[in-house]
Amino acid sequence: MKQGNRIEQLQIAYIGGGSRGWAWGLMSDLALSEELSGTVKLYDIDKEAARRNEIIGNRLTALPESKGQWKYETADSLEEALRGADFVIISILPGTFEAMASDVHTPEKYGIYQSVGDTVGPGGILRALRIIPTYVQFAEAIKSFCPEAWVINYTNPMTVCTRTLYEVFPEIKAFGCCHEVFGVQKLLADMLEDMLGINGVRREEINTNVLGINHFTWIDSAEYDGMDLLPIYKEFAGKYYEEGFGKHDIENWMNSYFESAHRVKFDLYRRYGLIAAAGDRHLAEFCGKSYLSSPQDIASWKFSLTPVSWRMDNRKRLIEQSERLVNGEEQLKPKGSGEEGVLQIKALLGLGDMVTNVNLPNIGQMAGLPMNAVVETNAVLSRNRIAPVAAGRLPAEVESLVMRHVVNQETTLRAGLERAENLAFRAFSADPLVALGVEDARALMREMLLNTKEYLPGWDLA
Amino acid sequence: MKQGNRIEQLQIAYIGGGSRGWAWGLMSDLALSEELSGTVKLYDIDKEAARRNEIIGNRLTALPESKGQWKYETADSLEEALRGADFVIISILPGTFEAMASDVHTPEKYGIYQSVGDTVGPGGILRALRIIPTYVQFAEAIKSFCPEAWVINYTNPMTVCTRTLYEVFPEIKAFGCCHEVFGVQKLLADMLEDMLGINGVRREEINTNVLGINHFTWIDSAEYDGMDLLPIYKEFAGKYYEEGFGKHDIENWMNSYFESAHRVKFDLYRRYGLIAAAGDRHLAEFCGKSYLSSPQDIASWKFSLTPVSWRMDNRKRLIEQSERLVNGEEQLKPKGSGEEGVLQIKALLGLGDMVTNVNLPNIGQMAGLPMNAVVETNAVLSRNRIAPVAAGRLPAEVESLVMRHVVNQETTLRAGLERAENLAFRAFSADPLVALGVEDARALMREMLLNTKEYLPGWDLA
Amino acid sequence: MKQGNRIEQLQIAYIGGGSRGWAWGLMSDLALSEELSGTVKLYDIDKEAARRNEIIGNRLTALPESKGQWKYETADSLEEALRGADFVIISILPGTFEAMASDVHTPEKYGIYQSVGDTVGPGGILRALRIIPTYVQFAEAIKSFCPEAWVINYTNPMTVCTRTLYEVFPEIKAFGCCHEVFGVQKLLADMLEDMLGINGVRREEINTNVLGINHFTWIDSAEYDGMDLLPIYKEFAGKYYEEGFGKHDIENWMNSYFESAHRVKFDLYRRYGLIAAAGDRHLAEFCGKSYLSSPQDIASWKFSLTPVSWRMDNRKRLIEQSERLVNGEEQLKPKGSGEEGVLQIKALLGLGDMVTNVNLPNIGQMAGLPMNAVVETNAVLSRNRIAPVAAGRLPAEVESLVMRHVVNQETTLRAGLERAENLAFRAFSADPLVALGVEDARALMREMLLNTKEYLPGWDLA
Amino acid sequence: MKQGNRIEQLQIAYIGGGSRGWAWGLMSDLALSEELSGTVKLYDIDKEAARRNEIIGNRLTALPESKGQWKYETADSLEEALRGADFVIISILPGTFEAMASDVHTPEKYGIYQSVGDTVGPGGILRALRIIPTYVQFAEAIKSFCPEAWVINYTNPMTVCTRTLYEVFPEIKAFGCCHEVFGVQKLLADMLEDMLGINGVRREEINTNVLGINHFTWIDSAEYDGMDLLPIYKEFAGKYYEEGFGKHDIENWMNSYFESAHRVKFDLYRRYGLIAAAGDRHLAEFCGKSYLSSPQDIASWKFSLTPVSWRMDNRKRLIEQSERLVNGEEQLKPKGSGEEGVLQIKALLGLGDMVTNVNLPNIGQMAGLPMNAVVETNAVLSRNRIAPVAAGRLPAEVESLVMRHVVNQETTLRAGLERAENLAFRAFSADPLVALGVEDARALMREMLLNTKEYLPGWDLA
Question: pLDDT exceeding 90 applies to what percent of chain C?
Fold first, then answer.
């Protein structure tokens, strides 16, 4: 398979391979990667979507500027996609946007606002309950058909998805990837320009120690070219505390609708003295009412709730784009997505070590959090190996904020595995966003379960 | 000092010795205890109140039915009270009822209702901040004047008070006592009557394993005469879930204004499968909005908020009673208070072992909670020794509910020791009752600090 | 079953019921116990021995001075003994004295001397390997036939036996009892006489905190009548360090051949500042070569190796005595054995709480040792409940000495369960007494395994 | 200081800068490193030796083939060496070879053989006691004069030296380096040639997970080019178990006198299923008598004891060589030493990340070992940052072998800091090599202390 520095005949299984956006980004990155070639098997319950991506991918590969030679194929079954796979990429939507609309908007009746609704909070918990059985199936299939493959998860809720894979198949070689930390590294690069006039710093040049759980990660040391960035951040957070910081990152098309002015991060710095390392929309959801007490309050914190209607409209746009790409009215071009998936694949193939933040079961990298909880820290990726970097321990108060979600996610996992409403309610009612009387909380959870019951097979919701 | 089975010339220092209620109960129990005699030194910043209790106590001792011969003296200083003490009893009010009114009622502006306001929640935290410096002083004085004395704390917030004593003087022989678990043991005795027709069971005959922290303790096994009480409780909690259980305990005059129908306990049983072991008023405050979301909601849970105005009126009544007792218009009679203080003193003097629930630093008795945190479990009291019983571990979800308060109380302690508003806000904003936007939370804490600033010497509250 | 303060129709299963000594002691204690009556089912693989004890027991019961009315019956099977049992007592010999001779004396070829050979060291490990499958069987039978019974283990190796019961049947209500700590409490009573002229103190009046593992327990605080005994012990250990202390305890016929002058204890005090709480013969075996480097060295430490030949002779004497007791030439008299078994049974029946040292899985009572390891600390025994007392933590260096045996015993358990020679050798070679070249260690273990292979069914010892 | 990719005016303090061997290797590596230039300040209590190295170093720099431009200066004081330092290298001998002769050979009287005597065992402990006060001094000086400098320790006992630095100055940026793991990586490369005919693999291409403590490190996964090396090692260890493996590594002049046939490693593999990752001479010393029971036994394991007389002779040879180098009769040539010091310096300067094994306080990288213990695992070195890789946990039995040394080294540290003979004896007698009667152990330790008392200032050895 390896020819000099080239890896050929690589086989990648893409579960959720009908996705737009994520799939196109990956195709684009693969096209740019001259050391690699092989086959990508696209599997999706929306088989038509997979087939369209097969066409789009093969057309992209045919472009002269595409260096990596890749063949895209639609797989009829999970088994067909997985057999022989060297890598498995999972990026799916649990249920539909209609289900997600229930996740995000039903709680609004009770004054609970969620900016994303896919990680924690009522929405994140319901989403987890829907996705756990699917991930059980994935883990079992990987164990049967490609137990040695590397598995990269992109689906949210990241922690629960990755944790489920390990729960079912403890020897799995899986990890979860998320670009939220990158955005904060870009903010630090912008900060260098704003505060010190240093231009053109790439986010990869900002070295950070990352610790926490996905979407609620923290940076307790950061450095650029020998400079300690924490004292500069202190100034920066103070300078822009009231107004927010405006040089938004618009380069990355994936993110452009999800802006904020970083006021939540600045306030978390003021409270805890650390850099919170995710987008404000995600951070806010871990902090109970702090930044989500009312629409006005949210507006004053300068981030926005992402309505599911936007996602639906966006899907329409992407489907239209997808048709144009299939018809040849538009052409996907190989340009970097800013994601690290292909770099990680290369590192695991032995084409150069890399250090980046990933989600993995705790073997000690996060002191103070339970062993086996899925945590996010840096890790060294090298040939066929991923070793988390020991990140140390969070300050007691931040650890406590994180811990309640760690425990809650573990309870959610058990609820999803056992399809147990009582366990689900322990998690639901313990979420800091669910600041309701217990009867209201029960009524809300029940309504959300019933709304999405077609995605909850085996639950007794009579 | 020991004469056969009698202990004479015992010296007890009573800090807060001007108290009504508690002090009179102790005097009464001492009068009934024929094995003991000695001196009680009453120390109080309200010296007049101490002096009145001196008269009341000595008059009680003079009654023919008083077996224990005790002399009551007012001490002019902490040092005078403590020098030579064998036992130190601490039962004080931090600040005034006016300060307590701020603790309890200021948060109501923001929709935060507190049934007691002396343990956790905004009120509990502010009360802790006021009391920590006082307890630092007590610990230092005990270290100087009677380092070998046994110290029994009755003051709330129990956990923080006891923790402060150990923080300042780690070798102190202190523990905290609280009667809330007794009330639940009485409830279990009532349950035996109600469910099985077994009458006349005394609460001491109900054996329970107690674990948790003060006012948020749990019972995970309970037994009467070889019978496992958990399955019976399951039936009982189901039977009275909606209406509540009505055979209220009215024997104990200390408790008569603090009734509930135990619906919070029954709901906690439904949620977690354990018996929550404190009064509903206290339990509710640890559970965020669950049982305290609105006055209507609270009413439907069938417990009541204790307004501070009631405490003020009650004080007036007690002062009047105190005057009658001093004038001889009324006579304090020796009858058992239902409290265990004197039994504990006897056990520590070697007059018979006892097992009861107390608050002590964790040396392993509560697996899963941090070492040195003050936890409440059973302990064996024997001559000059108190050994906590290993209580095991709480279920994950309950442990998580408890843990957030454990961490918060530790942060509160550091805030109080360092007089640091930033640390205080970490605790304040992490309390599950403070389900507010962060700006509102800041405004509320600041208002509460300013309201009580005369009891916060050394704080920079400009 | 309960009639006022009397418990009738109690059923006790005695596994190893053909034993002499232990069985007679128990019979004697039962005869003295007026609150109890019932049936003892004697089960033994040596059925004749059980039958002889049946006769002896019933004859004892018939004596006018016997208050407790007990019927002794021989059980034909484990099932017959266990069905309906309220209590199970286990006191057996794994293998024969011939096997024990191999345990104790084979290692002498390699300069390894063992004073007992039944706990740790090469002998203790081999004994454990033999006994584990038997205890697996006991645990399974108890689970099937009397899962609610209280199980009291007296067999050595105590830790491994008790640990095996819990490994197989985690809900078992078992604990292990050992009188070694009592001997040290008696020594402390003797010390009071010797050093302070205080006579007639009973060992039960000496309160101690006990912590460690069976036969390697420690006392870090001790008290008599309000007096701290540690400073006195310091003087005492110094005074008798060279000569040893000579007032040997000869009251207890069970112990009379197992005397020492306590020099090992005094030396351990010198080294670690704690009171080692077992007989010197047992303590020495945990300490590698320290007190067992050569026969001369052992003699200078003033304890003796117990040759298995003595045990064989003693058995002969006991068999003869047994025959005399059966024939009526001699009469067993009800007199207290000094053991606590019957007191513990009473406490568990609700006839009065007691605090004593027992062996139980760690639920936190021994901080610093792994959860679930069987440890020895005090516990409170009350009706149908045994709650270990949190004993705190050993000093680092003592903890380390203890820990290596804890890990080793866990490995031994796995070796015995899996019948795995490789695992057994990990334990064997890690024992501090096995200070041999690895080839010698392998040869020794193999010889010991082969010597006793008839008691190692299922092992592949080809 | 940074000019493009060049770092100029770097300042290195070399404590022990009069050393031969190590110093010359470093000089050689610096001469080869074209990106770096600056000053090396040589500090040594043997100032003449430092001065000779100054001459040798400057002469080396002057060679045309030397790319890195370095100036060597002798420092008169520690302060002079440290002020302004960017890096501090510490490589010293505690005491003299005469002291080391006592460490290594005195125990032989008691049948205790040590192959090196500088890490654990009687010799390692005595060496630690001598060196701790010196390292206290170093840590204080670094704190005063160059608190931001990176400190690389090469001195043995590595663990205790590094631990002392952190004990005294917790914010120090220190780590310990040792080449023993490299030798095992070379062995794995040789294995690839021997077993699979794969030639020319460099040790850097063997990826390993390293865990344990210095000189008792283990490898639980190893990979070359996607191949799992553990199954191959199993074959390899079996094939050469009896005879040992003979392709000795003779490239590295530093190591040529310290060969072995790896039989100890093969036997440890047989016992524990892991690759022990240090030279056999070091490994053996951690394993009690296993491989060191007698000179004959040692010979059969095919490694040799390094007599201190050899070290003395070698010193003589090196002094002669040093004189030749000073006189110009011989010329030091820039050729790679095989050590990684300069690579690490470059990585810390931001000239390329590297992953290698280092000794650092445990922040979670070694699950199962105590926090703050100095452990050896991989770490990522990048600009101004060193982050240990989470290495997971050792199997229980190996962990237990390691743990006893971890505890012992901590006790040794306290003994050295407090100059407490009693504490020293706790460590000494707990070392598995000290399989002696306690009186002999006491006599031996005392003799060793007295032999070296001039290096133990402040000890009360009367």
Answer: 85
- B268 inside 8 A of chain A by CB: no
Contacts of A206 (CB under 8 A, 6+ apart): A185, A188, A189, A222, A223, A224, A229
Is the Cβ pair B427, A294 closer than 8 Å?
no
Most B CBs within 10 A among A287, A289, A298, A440, hence the mutation to make, goes to A289
Phi, psi of B227 (to 5 degrees): -95, 135
Cα radius of gyration (chain A): 21
Q: How large is the average pLDDT for residues D93-113?
A: 93
Cβ-Cβ pairs closer than 8 A, A with D, add up to: 87
- Amino acid sitting at position B317: R
- C-alpha A91/C-alpha A45 separation (Å) is 12
CATH topology of domain A2-96+121-177+320-324: LDH C-terminal domain-like (3.90.1820)
Amino acid A256: pLDDT: 47
Question: So what's the pLDDT on residue D77?
Answer: 97
B392 vs C contacts (CB less than 8 Å):
363-364
pLDDT of residue B2 exceeding 80? no
* Residue A139 identity: A
Catalytic, B248? Answer no
Inspect the interface and report whether the beta carbons of B291 and A396 lie closer than 8 Å. Answer: no
Cβ atoms within 10 Å, residue C221:
19
Per-residue pLDDT tens for B150-200? 999 999 999 999 999 999 999 999 999 999 999 999 999 999 999 999 999
CA dihedral D202, D203, D208, D214 (to 10 degrees): -170
ipTM of the complex: 0.94
Residue contact C407–D396, C-beta within 8 A: yes
Tokens for D368, please give them: 């199962």
pLDDT in tens, B352-405: 899 999 999 999 999 999 999 999 999 999 999 999 999 999 999 999 999 999
| Contact status of A4 with chain D (Cβ, < 8 Å) | no
pTM of the model: 0.94
Instruction: Report whether A81 contacts A13 (CB < 8 A).
Output: yes
pLDDT per residue as tens digits for the range C397-428: 999 999 999 999 999 999 999 999 999 999 99
The mean pLDDT value of chain A amounts to 93
Query: Do the Cβ atoms of C383 and B226 come within 8 Å?
Result: yes
- Residue A257: per-residue pLDDT: 55
Average pLDDT of chain D, as a whole number: 93
Which chain B residue's Cα is nearest to A396? B407
What is the pLDDT, as a whole number, of residue B253?
A: 37
For C360, the closest chain B residue by CA position comes to: B390
Q: What mean pLDDT do residues C181-210 have?
A: 96
385-404 of A, contacting D, C-beta below 8 A: 385, 387-393
Distance of CA A79 to the CA centre of its chain: 25
Q: Which CATH class is domain C96-118+178-254+259-305+337-462?
A: alpha beta
Chain B and chain D touch, per 3+ beta carbon pairs within 8 A: no
Q: Which residues of D are catalytic?
A: 179
Euclidean distance between the first and the last CA atom of chain C, given in angstroms as a whole number: 54
CATH code assigned to D97-120+179-254+258-305+337-462:
3.90.1820.10
**Which tokens in the block code for residue B164?**
């402060």
Catalytic residue among A179, A215, A282, A405: A179
Please give the mean pLDDT across all residues of chain C: 93
Query: Closest-CA residue in chain D for A209?
Result: D387
Return the CATH superfamily for domain B96-119+179-254+258-305+337-462. Answer: AglA-like glucosidase (3.90.1820.10)
State the pLDDT at residue B370.
97
Per CATH, which fold does D2-96+121-178 belong to?
Answer: Rossmann fold (3.40.50)
**In the 8-state DSSP scheme, what is residue A392?**
B
Q: Which CATH superfamily is domain C2-95+119-177 in?
A: NAD(P)-binding Rossmann-like Domain (3.40.50.720)
Q: Shortest Cα distance from D430 to chain C (angstroms)? A: 8
Which residue from B353, B364, B393 is facing C365, i.e. has the nearest CB?
B364
Under an 8 A CB cutoff, do D436 and C404 touch?
Answer: no
